[in-house]
Amino acid sequence: MTTHRVWVYDDNVNTDVIFPGKYTYTLKTPDEIAAHALEDLDPRFTAEAQPGDVIVAGRNWGCGSSREQAVTALKYRGVTVIVAASFSGLYARNCINQGVLPIICPQARELLSTGDTLDLDLAGGTLLIKGQRFAFARLSPSVQAIYEAGGLLPMLQRRFSDQGAP
Questions:
Q1: Interaxial angle between packed helices 89-98 and 141-149, expressed in degrees from 0 to 180 and rounded to the nearest 10
Q2: Domain count, the chain
Q3: Model confidence over 84-123: pLDDT tens digits?
Q4: Interior angle at CA 56, CA 9 and CA 74, nearest 5
Q5: What is the rounded CA–CA span in Å between residue 94 and residue 63?
Q6: In the chain, N or C terminus with fewer CB closer than 10 Å?
Q7: 20: domain CATH number?
Q8: What is d(CA 3, CA 1) in angstroms, rounded to the nearest whole number?
Q9: What are phi and psi of 2, to 5 degrees?
Q10: CA distance linking residue 74 with residue 55, whole number of Å
């Protein structure tokens, strides 16, 4: 079980709010992208977010375009877990591909405020929030491997280097 500080946001936070579209073609490095995470929604986030912090949100987190930078920005600010009532399907897949775990827990948003903490038991598939335990779907072996490797690309690179390049 690990303890994480949370940043709490509402419903329907779209990818343009997570990472402003005006930077899509001008910023290239993960550090440049991370410097603009949530800047229009919460200017404190980029200055104060720490590795291991968790985003907790309402319904439909990551709706909008398929902009991968909306996950990259959070990942390189240190967020590797996002808990929401629901996710845009494409955003959730982008999370998994980049090694950020999307967890569905509809109750979390109502119980937490920014700065609170939650406890995560990844192996057991539970969140502990203010003394209440909430189960979430356990990771499939393939998603677990992607998450542990830090993303799909690092997992594949590791597999091919272990097997020898063709």
A1: 60
A2: 1
A3: 999 999 999 999 999 999 999 999 999 999 999 999 999 9
A4: 85
A5: 12
A6: C
A7: 3.20.19.10
A8: 7
A9: -120, 145
A10: 9
Residue at 22: amino acid letter: K
Q: Kindly report, residue by residue over 122-161, the tens digit of the pLDDT.
A: 999 999 999 999 999 988 999 999 999 999 999 999 888 8
Taking CA atoms, 142 is separated from 96, 111, 146, 149, 156, in Å, by: 10, 31, 6, 11, 11
What is the spatial distance between Cα 50 and Cα 47, in angstroms, rounded to a whole number?
9
113 within a domain of the structure (yes/no): yes
pTM of the model: 0.93
Instruction: Give me the pLDDT at residue 164, please.
Output: 64
Q: What would the mean pLDDT of 4-32 be, rounded to a whole number?
A: 96
Dihedral sign computed on CA atoms, order 18, 54, 63, 150? positive
